[in-house]
Amino acid sequence: MAFDIDLIQKLYAQLPGKVAAARKLLGRPLTLTEKILYAHAYETPAKAYSRGHDYVNFSPDRVAMQDATAQMALLQFSTCGRDKVAVPSTVHCDHLIQAKTGAAQDLATALDVNKEVYDFLSSISNKYGIGFWRAGAGIIHQVVLENYAFPGGMMIGTDSHTPNAGGLGMVAIGVGGADAVDVMAGLPWELKMPKVIGVKLTSKMSGWTSAKDIILKVAGILTVKGGTGAIVEYFGEGAESLSCTGKGTICNMGAEIGATCSIFAYDEKMGDYLRGTNRADVAQLANGVASDLRADKEVYDNPEAFFDQLIEINLSELEPYVNGPFTPDLATPISQMAAAVKEHGWPDAVEVALIGSCTNSSYEDISRSAFIAKNAMAKGLKAKSEFTITPGSEMVRYTIERDGMLDTFGKMGGIVLANACGPCIGQWARHVDDPSKKNTIITSFNRNFAKRNDGLSSTHAFVASPEIVTALAIAGSLSFNPLTDTLKNDKGENVKLDEPVGYEMPPKGFDVKDAGYHAPAADGSKVQVLVSPTSDRLQLLAPFAAWDGKNMTGLKLLIKAFGKCTTDHISMAGPWLKYRGHLDNISNNMLIGAINAFNMETNKVKNQLTGAYDEVPKVARAYKAANIGSIVVGDENYGEGSSREHAAMEPRHLGVRAILVKSFARIHETNLKKQGMLAITFADKQDYDKIQEDDSIDIIGLTTFAPDQQLTLVLNHKDGSKQEIKVNHTYNEQQIEWFKAGGALNVIRREIAAEAVA
User: Fold this and answer.
1) How far is the first Cα of the chain from the last one, in angstroms, to the nearest whole number?
2) Which residues, in sequence order, are CB contacts of 566 under 8 Å at separation 6+?
3) How far apart, in whole angstroms, are the C-alpha atoms of residue 364 and residue 406?
4) Active site residue 447
5) Catalytic choice (92, 644, 668, 729)
6) Whether 112 is catalytic
């Protein structure tokens, strides 16, 4: 029987009535996105919500957290006054395992090095009724797909790739930890009603093309911010032909286009996956409401009338893509890759090829890659590149080992890493002789920002499907096109790799001895959660101070960030993951990856108190010690990438009062608001150029702070001159209350305390 079967039964019993009511309210047929959102409204909808404009309160069905973000989320939840989570919630230990030598040794090392954190997460989960998946159980998104995701549901997760569950027809949205606290505390969760982008997939794929190539092409079309504020809904005969896990791959990488999430309609492929993962009961229930788990027929017949934007892709014409380097939306068809390598001077030799991760670690992915490896060896070929395999879950790992695939990879020279994120998030102790040497790696992961995988700015990281990555590992060349090119084998013969063949589901079914799950205590009231006051990895939180009721004056410019500034630039992962539960220690990585627009260097900004240049966190601490607020200025799509709320909490902790940018990524803007920060944008983006290195800045209009009303910034330049500029914000009344209270968590504590008194 599936997890949460009672919850699913109740949701499906109410779904037809809620969908009918929404259809009547809007007076037209509904997209799948609208059906799920209106069915999960916190209050019974009294009007049609305006896409891209109205803020709406929702009631998600569940919450998922990974270990790096769960620490801060649960530290916040433990202060809010609840005895138990209000919705089913889980913690997954997948981020803190460093890839170094191989699965067994790396896991053993992680269990030792991270014992304090794992013990904390296990005990706090036990106390508050949260399911716990121990280290080695698998990557959060793969485990959720295998166990918790269900068609028509809604969940939030403290990881930006939570949308992976859209592969099972679920609206699954990445959020910061403060948002998770709202839902776990039983409060409504707020989201601006998303726009809906339709992607119509026609025909079917064949040969070397895979589901990964669909999202790589979409990323090239929409760019890293083209999906911001929107849910991407896939449909068409091509969508029906994709495996459930293939759909998950596409939804997972929707995070790379800034989408709120992505989703597919319920179909037979999803039913097959549910039955194959011991959830036949869910499939049977879903079949009973199948018409409400997909858009209305009129939407599919005339999609231009119902989607804010429509993209159409003919899968029979789609070829494999290789995206990168340094950004996931630089999309190059495999047929043009050799020319692009020459044109841009990218290093052609592939030093490391890596498959797996939360994006591409399904049985289907691994079986197609294993076919290529076996085919290559049979033709007298072996891998020329270092080759690693990261299984997505213990269930997948156990099954592919049983079916001989790990043995195949081993014979080819592959190294199997732990069931964890590993190199995908920078948890990789890569062995390199010259860190400054330009080099190329290719992965089946999702992100490829500079330093993302190995911490080296010299590494050119490219993203492709697992089968293309495997082929390039054998060739050792980024220019190799397995569709047309040949390779010289050990006999000197020119041979061509066969087209990959795999299995959507294991012919013998999935199997696992110990999936790694621990159910929480029925009564957690006696469970003790201990955090040592001397720990350098865990730190209890103190509430942020409320707004003082005044305009902000005399703010010192901390940094004017130039160009791309992702959450990896603001709060790096890699070695810093160990401090995710200790706000003060991790704040020492704040903005150390951002490029200072005044000297084009990283982690080197001017301290206006001394005139000297120093590291960003040190300068911020100097201003804070002097009781002087500071401000950060940024470029477009600021905060792109991960859901990590540390990128918002660290500036708050170090005295930054406001973030002023050309535009925000969705999750990061919300995280800033939740922490009581002032997140504002230039009314005229050219005003970015008016910000000078020695500026002190006043923010006027906060005493009458209100929705849809601009604020005024006064730029006080070093030469005594002043300039005024207008800035915009997207705060609504509730978010303004968060700002005034010093953060959303302070409001939650106040409301729960009032409930207790009443």
Assistant:
1) 40
2) 449, 639, 640, 641, 642
3) 14
4) yes
5) 644
6) no
Question: What sign results for the dihedral spanned by CA atoms 301, 304, 306, 309?
Answer: positive
Measured CA distances, 736 to 331, 741, 750 (Å)? 40, 9, 16
In whole angstroms, what is the distance from residue 330 CA to residue 322 CA?
8
Neighbouring C-alpha atoms within 13 Å toward the C-beta of 537 = 18
pLDDT in tens, 37-68: 999 999 999 999 999 999 999 999 999 999 99
Q: Which of 642, 653, 687, 749 is catalytic?
A: 642
The first and second tokens of residue 282, run together, are 């869910």
Integer Cα distance of 597 and 344 in angstroms: 25
CB 743 within 8 A of CB 75: no
Separation CA 338–CA 480 (nearest Å): 7
- Partnered with residue 66 across adjacent β-strands are 92
Annotated catalytic residue, options 94, 182, 635, 687: 94
DSSP letter (8 states) at residue 137: S
**Residue 507 is which amino acid?**
P
pTM of the model: 0.92
Structure tokens at 711: 């604020």
Q: Is there a catalytic annotation at residue 94? A: yes
Could you tell me which residues come within 8 angstroms of residue 69 by beta carbon, excluding any fewer than 6 positions away? 95, 158, 159, 176, 177, 580, 643, 644, 645
Asked if 590 contacts 655 with a C-beta cutoff of 8 angstroms, the reply is: no
Is 644 a catalytic site residue?
A: yes
122 as an active site residue: the answer is no
Instruction: Report pLDDT digits (tens) over 603-619.
Output: 999 999 999 999 999 99
Give 404: exposed, middle or buried? Use CB within 10 Å, 0-12, 13-18, 19+. exposed
CA dihedral 390, 396, 399, 400 (to 10 degrees): -30
Where does the pLDDT of residue 121 fall: very low under 50, low under 70, confident under 90, or very high at 90 and above? very high
Cα–Cα distance, 415 to 215 (Å, whole number): 27
The two three-digit tokens of residue 32, written as one number: 């799948």
Residue 548 catalytic?
no
Please give the structure tokens belonging to residue 499: 């087209």
Task: Give every strand in the sheet of 131-133, ordered side by side.
Answer: 171-174, 154-157, 62-66, 89-92, 131-133, 517-518
The token pair that represents 26 in the structure block:
């809007």
The residue annotated as part of the active site, out of 159, 179, 403, 454, is 159
Q: Tell me the DSSP string of 563-611.
A: S--BHHHHB--GGGGGGTB-HHHHGGGBTTTSBBTTTS-BS-EE-TTTS
Nearest to 739 by CA among 545, 560, 600, 540: 545
Residue 712: count other Cβ atoms within 10 Å of its Cβ: 15
Strands 722-728, 711-716: pairing kind? antiparallel
